[in-house]
Design a protein that fits this description.
This protein is mostly helical. The protein folds into two domains: 17-95, no CATH class; 98-283, Hypothetical protein af1432. Helix content is 66%, strand content 0%. The chain has helices at 5-12, 20-29, 36-44, 47-57, 71-78, 80-92, 101-124, 129-138, 141-149, 151-162, 168-171, 180-190, 195-203, 215-234, 251-255, 260-282. The longest helix has 24 residues, at 101-124. The N and C termini lie far apart (37 Å).
Length: 283
């Protein structure tokens, strides 16, 4: 796919900015002189992000043995790479202009795939777990941006999908000039994220990543693609589960050389982990 990302970004018009607290924290994490107190002070400027970080740090997602009561302690416990993931996750939720049922489903979809991708990366040793979390979080960023820039068209698109007129990928071209995968990749490129995350967002559905050119990128994309299928099968971020989805028959399962037993484990445990941690991320 040779679409120029700058052209895509220009076509969007009303592009959401990178959340301020996320921008500040990412900048600070690049400096070896930054300490936990400074990070805590930066995060505390956004009460919603602060509350979410403490909530997740105390959840079964990290299975810590004692309660985390301060931001400094949370940062020390989860580590810098996980902190980056959690701050971006908490910040991304605030990107919506409004927050109705559609936005709630988009957010559940993003968090569900992030949690699922992290679990699959750890369980099957397919990718770096924190990179997988971010890749899962961002894989439908394009949908969030579409809804931000043109909520009326996005709502019409969502209603058409629910009415059975076609899948999102099949009919999104009737409502928007670029596919959500292209939009998401273009925005990540503008925000200066890694090429691995950009390519994963771009190819999370078609798996058009060359294994022999970049195996790490290939396995990361396969991990997120698998989590995407598992979440759709379970019904995370959707109105209802889709039990017609054959996860084993996906390109992702084939790429990761998983058998039926491993796929069954993936479906069962992703649902369990998401259910356990849903309120920590979504409420």
């Amino acid at each position: 796919m040779s679409t120029d990302f700058q052209t895509v970004v220009r076509s969007i018009g009303d592009l959401p900015p990178m959340p301020a607290v996320a921008t500040k924290v990412l900048q600070m994490l690049q400096s070896p002189e930054t300490n936990f107190s400074q990070l805590g002070e930066a995060i505390s400027s956004d009460p919603a992000v602060s509350a979410r970080l403490l909530k997740v740090a105390n959840s079964s997602f990290f299975s810590l043995k004692r309660q985390v009561k301060t931001l400094d302690h949370a940062i020390a416990i989860v580590g810098e790479r996980t902190l980056r993931s959690l701050v971006l996750a908490a910040s991304l939720e605030g990107m919506n202009k409004s927050y109705g049922l559609l936005e709630k489903m988009l957010w559940e979809d993003s968090i569900g795939c992030a949690v699922g991708s992290r679990f699959l990366a750890r369980r099957f040793n397919t990718a770096d777990p924190e990179e997988a979390f971010l890749a899962g979080l961002f894989r439908h960023l394009g949908m969030i941006v579409m809804n931000y820039s043109d909520p009326e068209s996005f709502r019409s698109l969502a209603e058409a999908v629910y009415a059975g007129e076609g899948s999102f990928g099949e009919i999104e071209g009737c409502y928007f000039p670029y596919a959500h995968a292209v939009v998401g990749a273009a925005v990540l490129n503008k925000w200066n994220f890694s090429d691995d995350l950009i390519q994963c967002t771009l190819h999370h559905e078609d798996m058009a990543v060359a294994k022999d050119e970049n195996e790490i990128q290939y396995r990361l994309t396969a991990t997120v693609s698998l989590a995407d299928r598992v979440c759709a099968r379970i019904g995370i971020g959707a109105r209802e589960p889709d039990e017609s989805i054959n996860v084993l028959d996906s390109k992702a399962a084939e790429a990761l050389v998983l058998d039926q037993g491993q796929v069954d484990i993936a479906i069962e445990q992703v649902e369990e982990i998401f259910t356990e941690n849903r309120d920590n991320f979504l409420n």
